[in-house]
Design brief:
This protein is about 30% helix and about 35% strand. With about 100 residues, the chain is an alpha+beta fold. It has one domain: Alpha-Beta Plaits (2-Layer Sandwich). It has a four-stranded antiparallel sheet with strand order 2-5-1-6, covered by helices on one side.
């Protein structure tokens, strides 16, 4: 079955441990719905650096990545449907890029 990467943009760190627990529960519920289609649960990521021939910029780029997940889906449309359940999408605080992983 094809694999896809979900690249998360947006969201933010919870301000309190209680908020963190609520957010984690939302992610766990969504992952529970996806079941064994989650190949790699991924992780949040810190601020990225952009490397180009002009040097290194530490601003996170034009649309900073906030995390990732790898899933299996029948096709890109199915993967996009899965991504619609992401807590970032549901609460309007972010977005999910869906990209096929090309087997080499």
């Amino acid at each position: 079955m094809p694999k896809f990467i979900f690249a998360y943009h947006g969201g933010g760190m919870p301000e309190t441990p209680e908020e963190g627990e609520k957010e984690m529960a939302k992610w766990q519920a969504w992952y529970g719905q996806l079941g064994n289609k989650v190949v790699d649960g991924g992780a949040p990521v810190g601020m990225s650096k952009t490397v180009s021939k002009d040097g290194v910029a530490g601003n996170g780029g034009a649309n900073p990545l906030s995390g990732y997940t790898v899933v299996e889906a029948a096709d890109e449309n199915a993967a996009c449907e899965m991504a619609k359940g992401c807590p970032l999408v549901q609460n309007g605080s972010g977005s999910v890029e869906v990209a096929p992983i090309v087997e080499m």
